Amino acid sequence: MKYSPSVCPSALAFATIVFSLTSAAAAQTPALEKGVSVQMAATTNATAFPQADNEDAWIVAVTANGSLYFGVKPVTVGSLTEEMKSTPRRREARLYVKADARARFDAVKQALHAAQMDLFETAVLLTNQPPHAADVAMVPPQGLEVSLALPSRTVTVVELYDSGRPTAGLKVNDREISWSALPAALSEASQGGRVKQVVLEADGSLPFDEIVRVIDVSRSLGAKVALSLAGL
Known about the structure:
Layout: H1 9-28, E1 47-48, E2 58-62, E3 68-70, E4 73-75, H2 77-85, E5 95-99, H3 105-117, E6 122-127, E7 142-147, E8 156-161, E9 169-172, E10 175-177, H4 182-189, E11 197-202, H5 208-220, E12 224-227
Parallel strand pairs: 2-5, 5-6, 8-11, 11-12
Antiparallel strand pairs: 1-7, 2-3, 3-4, 6-7, 8-9, 9-10
């Protein structure tokens, strides 16, 4: 004898409701962005770089504990340069560095050094920006572009060092200053004119957030910033 499976009408109705709710929730949940999640430093003078959202964008991520990723692939300091050299890229492609604000600057310098070895002259440090639009999802990636080559002409030199206090010590052209005095000191160093070029030297033990802070202030004055990668 053959039996036909029977389904309780109430159970069927319940299953239909659950399926409908699950489907609706899935439709309303945005897909997770591909990439490594980090807590980026906040800035107010970053520039929009929508190309950083492209599928073929070159992104090196640095996590809070110093781990490196080329795209989403874990890499070591030693393998990053080779990984970059063996990956084809467009001539005009930029390198985007997505570093955690809490990462030691040494780890970020390693990523930038690899970029320099692969003939990148500049890099874009991706940063966080406060929401300024109704739809935050429409805000493009933003960042601060820095030079990886030191200029040959006279420039303003900013030095960040470990002061043993909660915030780093700060010098402009060998003169000790407070953080609040940084904009005025940069303007004064340019002899009253527009600040054109800043070379930033920073202790590798400092959190990346403090390096970004100096770059952000420099950009607010219209200055270009070159990062010293010495000490690697």
